[in-house]
């Protein structure tokens, strides 16, 4: 029987996470009545990983000899997929009940180019990950200059917080979607093209989504579709992650902003300032605060951020803290009504 959905799961040295991802998809297909296939693509992880993946019950395993990055893994899966509806996923994702059905419903709209779910970071589902963060020259410049003007940082934060809360609560059209999970119809790829493999790690979905929007399609955020994304877990165990991310960023900036724009942003990055007036937080814990939420970000601006409600005391879940890179993590307590920052703190995570 021809599948109605092809799910492409891209793996690199994440066999345990890939096994959970595929198992959650199999459960979704069975319980939601979806005739689907799972294509598990490994990006050059080596023979040891291939042996571990052999036990994962995917319909097809595509073992690439070299690491072509997430973009190359997706493209390899697209070439082998049989369905007209496609689901792209990182290996470190677990699909909650109903998520796949909600995404399929969203891309059934004629104008829908791609749809993404609401991702939670922790097992309890309290910490929500950002829906997306569309780059742009002025936005990128502001990120590098964060920490120099509290008033400017607060204004930017409040605007981003209001839009993020709107998408988390109501969903709808977005300028950018996180690439951890994307659903799309094949005709969208026919119109916009496949992922650009010049982006080895990150920015591949950003550049593709720009092409999707230029073809007249919408990007849709679907909060009723929920997944758990173990963000930073697999990346933290791969020593080449930082270099690959920097390479993708350089390619994107050169193509989007030109040589001069890229150089200006690099100069701004070297002049980056620490957060102004950020209170030291000895432990990643905060007391409850009515009408407020807490945002967590590696950038002094506080955006983009993951966030949790502060209607009760908050303590950063151990499984989240354990996957974070060492260094400064910025906590912003903000008012949910208008996104206004109420308190800025910084926690130094030790190695």
- List the total number of helices: 11
Task: Count the beta strands.
Answer: 16
Question: What is the CATH class name of the largest domain?
Answer: Alpha Beta
**What is the CATH topology of the largest domain?**
Spore Coat Polysaccharide Biosynthesis Protein SpsA, Chain A
Annotated CATH architecture of the largest domain: Alpha-Beta Complex
Strand content: 25-35%
Amount of helix:
25-40%
What's this model, at a glance?
The protein has 11 helices and 16 strands. The chain is α/β, with parallel strands linked by helices.
Set out the fold topology.
Blueprint: E1 5-11, H1 15-31, E2 36-43, H2 47-53, E3 60-64, H3 69-80, E4 85-90, E5 93-95, H4 99-107, E6 112-120, H5 137-145, H6 150-170, E7 172-173, E8 181-185, H7 186-192, H8 204-214, E9 218-229, H9 233-236, H10 241-270, E10 279-280, E11 285-286, E12 292-297, E13 306-309, E14 314-315, H11 318-321, E15 327-335, E16 341-349
Parallel strand pairs: 1-2, 1-4, 2-3, 6-9, 10-16
Antiparallel strand pairs: 4-8, 5-9, 7-9, 11-14, 12-13, 12-15, 15-16
Helix pairs in contact: 5-10, 7-8
Characterise the protein shown here:
By secondary structure, this protein is of the alpha/beta class. It folds into two domains: 5-129 and 174-235, Spore Coat Polysaccharide Biosynthesis Protein SpsA, Chain A (Alpha-Beta Complex); 133-166 and 239-351, no CATH class. 37% of the residues lie in helices and 26% in strands. The protein has helices spanning 15-31, 47-53, 69-80, 99-107, 137-145, 150-170, 186-192, 204-214, 233-236, 241-270, 318-321, and strands spanning 5-11, 36-43, 60-64, 85-90, 93-95, 112-120, 172-173, 181-185, 218-229, 279-280, 285-286, 292-297, 306-309, 314-315, 327-335, 341-349. The strands form four sheets. Strands 3-2-1-4-8 form a five-stranded mixed β-sheet, sandwiched between helices. A five-stranded mixed β-sheet has the order 10-16-15-12-13. Strand 1 (5-11), helix 1 and strand 2 form a beta-alpha-beta unit. Helix 5 (137-145) packs across helix 10. The protein is globular and about 60 Å long. The model has no long low-confidence stretch (mean pLDDT 94).
């Amino acid at each position: 029987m021809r599948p109605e959905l092809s799910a492409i799961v891209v793996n690199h040295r994440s066999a345990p996470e890939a096994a959970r991802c595929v198992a959650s998809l199999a459960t979704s297909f069975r319980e939601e009545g979806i005739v689907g296939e799972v294509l598990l693509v490994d990006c050059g992880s080596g023979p040891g990983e291939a042996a571990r993946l052999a036990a994962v019950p995917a319909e097809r395993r595509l073992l690439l000899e070299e690491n072509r990055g997430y973009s190359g893994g997706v493209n390899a899966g697209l070439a082998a997929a049989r369905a007209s509806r496609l689901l792209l996923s990182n290996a470190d994702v677990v699909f909650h009940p109903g998520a796949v059905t909600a995404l399929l419903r969203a891309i059934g709209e004629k104008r829908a180019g791609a749809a993404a779910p609401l991702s939670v970071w922790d097992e309890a589902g309290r910490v929500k990950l950002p829906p997306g963060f569309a780059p742009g020259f002025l936005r990128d410049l502001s990120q590098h200059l964060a920490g120099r003007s509290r008033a400017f940082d607060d204004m930017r934060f409040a605007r981003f917080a209001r839009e993020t809360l709107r998408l988390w609560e109501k969903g709808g059209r977005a300028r950018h979607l996180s690439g951890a999970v994307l659903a799309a119809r094949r005709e969208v790829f026919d119109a916009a093209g496949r992922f650009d493999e010049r982006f080895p790690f990150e920015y591949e979905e950003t550049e593709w989504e720009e092409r999707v929007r230029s073809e007249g399609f919408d990007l849709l955020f679907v909060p009723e579709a929920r997944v758990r994304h173990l963000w930073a877990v697999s990346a933290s165990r791969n020593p080449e992650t930082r270099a690959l991310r920097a390479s993708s960023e350089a390619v994107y900036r050169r193509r989007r902003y030109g040589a001069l724009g890229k150089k200006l942003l690099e100069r701004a990055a070297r002049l980056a300032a620490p957060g102004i007036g950020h209170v030291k937080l000895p432990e990643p814990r905060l007391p409850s605060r009515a009408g407020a939420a807490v945002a967590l970000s590696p950038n002094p601006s506080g955006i983009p951020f993951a966030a949790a409600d502060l209607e009760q005391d908050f303590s950063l879940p151990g499984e989240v803290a354990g996957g974070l890179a060492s260094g400064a993590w910025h906590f912003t307590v903000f008012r949910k009504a208008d996104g206004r920052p109420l308190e800025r703190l910084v926690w130094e995570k030790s190695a």
